[in-house]
Amino acid sequence: MKSAGPRNYNRRRKEKSQKKKRKPISVKPGADRTLKKVFSTIGVPEETPFQPDPFQLEAVSAVQFSDCLVTAPTGSGKTWIAEQAIASILNTGGRAWYASPLKALTNSKYAEFTALFGKENTGILTGDRKENPEARIVTGTTEILRNQLYDAMHRGEDLAADFVILDEAHFLGDEERGVVWEEIMIYLPHRIPLLMLSATIGNADQIAAWLESIRNRKCTVVKETKRPVPLYPLFFHPSGTLLPLMGKSGENKKPRINKKVLSALEDGSTSMFSRSRKLPPMGDMLRVLKKYNLLPAIFFLKSRADCDKALDLCADFFIEDKDRKAALEFRLDELANRSPHIAGHRHRFFLENFGVGSHHSGQLPAWKLVLETLMSEGLMNAVFATSTVAAGVNFPARTVLFFNSDRYNGKEFAPLSPTEFHQMTGRAGRRGMDNIGFAVAVPSKFMEIRLIGELISSEPSDVASQIRINFSMTLNLLLSHTISRIEDLLKKSFAAFLIAESRSGQSRKRAPHMMLWNEFLHHVDFLKETGYVTESGALTEDGIWASRLRVDYPLLIAETLKEGLLPISDPALLSGVMASFVYDADSDERLDEEKQMYRRMAKTLNNIKNGIRPFVMLMLQRGFPMRPLFLRPAIAIHAWADGRRWEQVVSLAKMPEGNLAMLILRTADNLRHVKALSDVFPEAAEAARLSILLLMRDPVSAFFAPLPEQEPSEIPVD
């Protein structure tokens, strides 16, 4: 054992010596000679009058007589279809409802539709914004549309719309939120035509067949596989030399990884990037891209931390064009100075001097919106982003770079799916601004070059049903339907359709919807046991008002209201309590200081926990999952509502400021549901109203004021 020590010591000395001798990465611009012809096509297309593509015209025609599912690459102009369809509806005196998955996208479409159709004709509903809700065109989130369908069914009325557009319809397959899309498609009255705009998906015909089976009207599928701007894949060698990523080989001349790229991977010359956990010199990489006119670019990185670290690695990549720098600074002042916190953002230096920014969910929504606006207006060089930027945001670039071939799905890192990859590459090449776009694979520890090669030519992924039963759905269905009618609705689910289709030709087994139906009955039995549903299956008085709590844990909030446990005399304290119900991650509960605020919040939360403990224990015994009510997020949101400075609250929360902002917004959203119960709990509703006012201040509220608009693009892009 004694002799192991010197050997380890000598080994460490040798490794240390080798590290000292290792030469720094030298990145010098270079390009394979075969790229000369490709690079010669880089440029801006000639300005010509806008001419819609055949698939756009086909879709506009289809929605006149049927439902329509449009599946087309990102950036291909799907929004133009929506605009033409809305114009047609308005001309006939009708009303249109446009739904999207993201508040940022909804805000953007609201601004676009207001410019096109007039402010008097356009409204917005996102929970955080409610403007002109009776307008002939309403833009809103899918959750708001689903809730309006719940309300209409309850009142026995028809939805106040003659046309519905579901943007980003591939969210039907989203694990967390796909259930909302599926519910809308099931509940939407048959008389209302449905236009669905989607990224390329593999089973569009299957989805259309399902919709035809439940809506008794034709669903036309319009497919476009051709990108509006051609995509050329490249490989970034650590030396700074750009190589074609793909070549052709074999009798069929099928695309294969370029031999030069394979040689570089095999001879170890890419190890400067691929074996290190450190990020490559981003400034040098930007210089390579600049030399070959490949900017602006989006760098897709593995983590939030990498996105932030990348900014420091852009040293000396200063904006040399004084006029361009002045234009960037002017527009940045115009956008950011509406919020003192955003105006003094810690990353502003990098944005002003290098034209680069870090974009991820840990950033404040308002800061991300500033970056998105500047990027869409062509004022930035690059954005360092996680893959989440690929979904639903107009974020155009000439080039996208990949540093890893996997993506965090909320639970673990998994290989990129074809749909995810095509959404990310969809940002490369701007319609009307680029002749060609580029996707660049960069060797790294987490990059499988062969997988990227396969994804380039792969077919899009299928979308699967994500429907699941929860208490909010159960209460709202019981509010409007009998038990037997609800079973009929569940038979209409996409999940049941897929199961039935997979069993085609097999011997008869139990009905395809039975798994959903049994889960629904399980929820109903618990609601009967706890007094929200009668033995005959009707909602009790408590069940009726609890159905209006369309949140993740409606029964827990309902129990605190019934038992009078909420601190309605202190709106700031109420904000903290509601944050604990909302927070859905792990929390560090160790508190460094013992202040009065901590004790008050801890005492209040403990009283609530003790008050609802029998109910929670019963839920667990009946097999329903529960999550802890953490103290730290409650303290942080209480501190914010109590007037503490943003920096203090971020430190107290121990979470990235983007996460904190989203927690505040979700808390405010839950409080709005309590506020809506003024007829049943007037004091609690008033306290909730005051709590929301305390929460919605800069920099959180900066996200919701409309940004100054520049002239809209001549060619609509989605």
Compact description:
This protein has 718 residues and is α/β, with parallel strands linked by helices.
Structure description:
With 718 residues, this protein is α/β, with parallel strands linked by helices. It folds into 4 domains: 22-41 and 229-456, Rossmann fold; 54-223, P-loop containing nucleotide triphosphate hydrolases (Rossmann fold); 471-539, no CATH class; 552-718, Sec63 N-terminal domain-like fold (Orthogonal Bundle). Helix 26 (596-621) crosses helix 27.
Largest sheet: number of strands, sense, barrel closure: 8 strands, mixed
Shape descriptor reads globular
CATH class of the largest domain: Alpha Beta
Work out the count of structural domains. Answer: 4
**What is the fourth-level CATH superfamily of the largest domain?**
P-loop containing nucleotide triphosphate hydrolases
Class derived from helix and strand content: alpha/beta
Number of helices: 30
Total beta strands: 20
Helix-residue proportion: 40-55%
